[in-house]
Amino acid sequence: MTVPFRSQNVSPQACPALVLNADFRPLSYYPLSLWGWQDAIKAVFLDRVNIVSEYDKVVKSPSFEMRLPSVVSLKAYVRPTRHPAFTRFNVFLRDRFTCQYCGEHDELTFDHVIPRSKGGATTWENVVAACSPCNLRKSDRLPDEARMTPAQKPFAPTVADLHRNGRLFPPNYLHESWMDYLYWDSVLEP
After folding, report:
1. Which helix (H) or strand (E) is 119 found in, with range?
2. pTM
3. CA-CA distance, 9 to 5, in Å (whole number)?
4. What is the per-residue DSSP string for 41-66?
């Protein structure tokens, strides 16, 4: 049964809940593991999470009232993946959202170091972040032919590498109740 919640001036974006694993580490740093308030409340009712911290804001139904969760922890531990998925976003995160040819941060695309037309594969070890002008300038040439060498050799990152880089790009909104769970001195390998 679904209970329709009414809230005063509360939108899902206004009160997200930080989602922690059962060991009280965020499920993900970048993007930060957040749920909208509706998903957090649903997880509470389904008994899948513990409420760790709450906002001052309240949601109400005709027969129920509840403060919105600001931090929740999963009751069951979710084993983190050891090998991150190869995605455009994760390539950008590995390369710290920086063109590997000129150092720019705008208009990012990804470039095959050894072009696909020359047998290059779409793998961690052959793809780098590149701004659109550099990608167009390199075209389908090898790095030596184009006189464009990536700043760092492309590699398959670990989850810890991506977490470490993700901490360099915190979201625009960080609620004070989240701070104890976000920034340790080092990210430990699972």
Report:
1. none
2. 0.67
3. 12
4. HHHHHTT-EEEEEEEEEEEEETTEEE
Q: Is 160 exposed, middle or buried (0-12, 13-18, 19+ CB in 10 A)?
A: middle
Which residues pair with residue 7 across a beta bridge? 59
pLDDT digits (tens, 9 = 90+) for 5-62: 444 454 545 789 999 999 998 888 777 889 999 999 999 999 999 999 999 888 888 9
- The pLDDT assigned to 1 comes to 35
> Measured between alpha carbons, how far is 38 from 183 in angstroms, rounded to an integer?
26
**What own/partner pairs with CB < 8 Å and gap ≥ 24 does 132-136 have?**
132/107, 132/108, 133/102, 133/104, 133/107, 134/99, 134/101, 134/102, 134/104, 135/109, 135/110, 135/111
Instruction: Give yes or no for a contact between 67 and 58, defined as CB atoms under 8 angstroms apart.
Output: yes
Q: Which residues pair with 51 in a beta bridge?
A: 72
**What pLDDT is stored for residue 179 in this prediction?**
85
How far is the C-alpha of 59 from the C-alpha of 8, rounded, in Å?
A: 8
Q: Which H or E element spans position 112?
A: strand 108-112
The reported pLDDT for the residue numbered 13 is: 54
